[in-house]
Amino acid sequence: MKSTIALIFLLICTYSIAQNGNSEKYFGNPLEIPIILSGTFAELRTNHFHGGLDIRTEQREGLPVLAAAEGYISRISVSPYGYGKALYVQHPNGYTTVYGHLSKFAPDIDAFIKKLQYEEETFSIDINPKENELMVTKGEVIALSGNTGGSGGPHLHFEIRDAAERPMNPLMFGYEVPDSKQPKVSALFAYPLGEEAHINNSAVRQKLPLVLQKDGTYITPAIDACGEIGFGVSTVDQLDMAPNNNGVYRIETSLNGDKIFQANFEIFSFEESRRLNQLIDYAYYKEKWDKVQKLFVEPSNHLSIYSNVINRGYVNVQDSLSYSYTIKITDFAGNERLIRIPIEGKQSDIPIVKEKDSTAYFVPAGVSTLFEDKGIDIYLPKNSLYEDTYLDIVFENEKVKVHEDIIPLHSHITIGFDVSKYLPEDREQMFISKLSNSGKPYYSPTKKNGDRFFTEVRNFGTFSLGRDENAPRVVPVNFKEGQWISSNSDLRVKIWDDLSGISSYKATVNGKFILMEYEYKKSLLTHDFSDGVITETENLLEITVTDNVGNTTIYKSTFFRK
Q: What are the φ and ψ backbone dihedral angles of 160, each rounded to 5 degrees?
C-alpha cells in the first residue's frame, strides 16, 4: 500500500514539474529586446533540422544574453565551427537551455573557461562544469551575443531541450512572436508510388500548377491518376518584421475529408535529424536547391515527427472514382494555407512502365557491401543507405566516381586508395580529395594506414588522390615588424591554406603560450591583450600553422608595448 501511494505521489510530482516546465512564465526572454526571428524550430537545413530559434540581434553583436531561468552552467563549448561560443544551462525542471554564436561570456564564466584554455593551450574546448559550480539566476547576463562558429550573421541561437537532450520548439513555452502572415507555397508535386501507378499519363514525378483563390486557398486542375500516389510541397513561413523564409509548424493532409497524414515540428532527437533527407525530395533538392517535403512516409522512414498517418499517407486511386485531396499548412501562430487537389481515377490506355535502374553495383540497404577495382575500395556499412539501390560507380586510375549526390546517405561510407607505388616521403603531402562538378579538388579528411589511404564521407561524388605542396600563409593585420602597438587592444593575424586546409595552429610570445581565437569565416586569429599574459616591453611573437597534410609555416615578428 505504501509503495502504491509513493508511486502515485511520484507521478503527480513528475506531472506537476512537467507542467511547470512548460509554463509560459517559467522561461524568460534570452535577450532584452523583443523576439524577432530569422530562423524557426525544425526548419529544414542541409542534412538536419534546425534545433532552436535564431533570434535577430538588430544586425549587431554584443547584446546582453540572459539566462532564461535559474539553474547552473552545465556545459561550455568553444569552437571555430558549429555553435561557436556556446553555453548550456541546466534548470531545476529538467530542461536545458542553449545559447549559441556568442561573442563573449560573462566575466566569471570567461575567467573559468580561459583558465582551462591556457592550461590546455588550446582555443577549442568543451567542458562540463560540476553541478552548482557556476550558478545563474533568471534574467542574469551570462554572455554577449555574437556571430561565432557557423553563423551566417549576428544572431542568438536559442534552444530548449528536454531531459533526454531532445530539442523542443521554444514557442511552445509561451514566447510571443508577431506573425500575421499565411505560410507561402512555391511548388506542388505529385508522385506515382506504386509499380503501375501513373499521373496524367506519366510514371514520373509531376509538377502541378497552383491557382490562387480570393480567400488565399490554392486549387489545382484535376489530375488523372491510377494506383498508389503521393504528394509533396515546397512551403515556408514568413513572420512579421523579418524577411526570412522560415519553417512551418504543421502539415496535414486529408482524403475525402478524412485525415491521412500529419507532420508536427515540435520535438525531435539529434539521432534522427539527418533523416530529414527522407522527408524531402533529395534528388530535386540537389538539382534545384528547393526542399520539397514529401507528404507520405516511405517504409524505411522512421522519423518521429509523424502522426495520424493512414496507409503511410499514400492515396490509392481506383479507376472511375473521384477523390478530393487537401493539404493544410499551419504556422505556430495558427495562420493556415489550404491546397485542394481534385483527383479523377483513370486507367491509362497506354501501358505505363517505370524505368528501373540496373548496374553492376547493387547495394541492399540492410547488408554491408564492398566493391574493389584498380586499387580503390568502397565500403558501405549496413543501413548506410535508406533503400536497396543500384549505384553508378566508375573506377579509374587514382579516381573513382561513386554515383551522384542525388541519393542521401544516412551514415558514413569508406573510400580507400592503394598508395603502395609511392615512396613514403611522397605520401606525406598526398590526400584524398572530393572533386566539384568543375573538377576542383577539396580536401576530404584522410586517414593514412601504411599503403592505404582512406576517407569517410556522407555524400556521394567523385574522389581522387591529390597533393598539397604549399604551406599555409600567415599575414599580420594590425601590426608590423618592430612596431610599437601600445594602443592596440588586440593582436590580429590572418591564416589560410589554399588546398588541404588548416589543421592546427599555436601562438607564443617570448616562448609563452598565448590564446588566439580562430574565426574561420574570416581566416582570422585574434589575441585579446586583456588576458594579461603579455607583460614585457619587447615581445617575440611566434605562430606555427600546419595544414592537413603536414605542411607547416612558422611566422615570427617582434612588437613593442608599454
A: -125, 125
Domain harbouring 406, CATH code: 2.60.220.30
Q: How confident is the model at residue 305 (pLDDT cuts 50, 70, 90)?
A: very high
Question: How do residues 154-202 score in pLDDT, each as one tens digit?
Answer: 999 999 999 999 999 999 999 999 999 999 999 999 999 998 899 999 9
SS3 track for 415-459: EEEECCCCCHHHHCCEEEEEECCCCCEEEECEEEECCEEEEEECC
Same domain, 488 and 458: no
Q: Per this entry, what is the length of the chain?
A: 562
| 132 in the same domain as 213 | no
d(CA 530, CA 489): 7
Residue 330 near residue 253 (C-beta atoms within 8 A):
no
- State the DSSP code for 356: -
Whole-number Å distance between alpha carbons of 192 and 203: 6
Q: Tell me which residue range forms the domain holding 506.
A: 473-560
422 and 463 share a domain? yes
10 Å CB burial of residue 257 (0-12, 13-18, 19+) is exposed
* Torsional sign, CA 276, 74, 14, 18: negative
CA–chain centroid gap for 464, Å, is 26
User: Cα(397)–Cα(463) distance, rounded to whole angstroms?
Assistant: 11
Assess contact for 49 and 273: CB atoms under 8 A: yes
